[in-house]
Amino acid sequence: MPRLVLFQPEIPPNTGNVARTCAATCTELHLVEPLGFELSDRTVRRAGLDYWPWVDLHRHSDWDTFRALHVQRGGRLLALSRHASRPYTELRYRDDDWLLFGQETSGLPQAVLDTADARLTIPMAGGVDRGGGVRSLNLATAVGVVLFEALRQLQAP
After folding, report:
1. Which of 85, 135, 141, 142 is spaced 20 to 30 Å from 11 by Cα?
2. If phi over 0 gives left and psi between -120 and 50 gives alpha, with beta otherwise, what is residue 75?
């Protein structure tokens, strides 16, 4: 089953919604600190509703700590970025993939992108790269789009 990684998320309800999706799909959630909020924040808890006990949550104090775990456990690191050119639908997902999403305001730093095995994007008809005004999707929405494509390909429930 792919794992989900949020790199230094900033907006509490987004992380709460992602946690709820992870609980529903039995997907590990890895949070790379520093976070822009406390996990005890009521908006995080409210967005995750009462599903937090079912979230397989892993917190990492920094990127290097997460990378050590990733190297130890293996698998491809797939970075989502609005600057990537390869659509997320063109990849054949594997059970040991790590789906990496960046900060809501700035995405993933170049140093983190450089460690990825692949960089993927979610094409948008109204995206700025196509003459529209939308820079990116909401983090929780983007996570759902990519995670459910991976699960569909892997025929996970």
Report:
1. 85
2. left
CB atoms within 10 A of CB 30: 21
Domains of the chain: 3-154 (3.40.1280.10)
Q: Which of 11, 134, 153 is nearest to 78 (CA)?
A: 153
pTM for the model stands at 0.91
Residue 123: both structure tokens together: 């094409």
Task: Confirm if 122 and 29 have CB atoms less than 8 A apart.
Answer: no
d(CA 128, CA 46): 32
pLDDT tens sequence across 74-95: 999 999 998 898 999 999 999 9
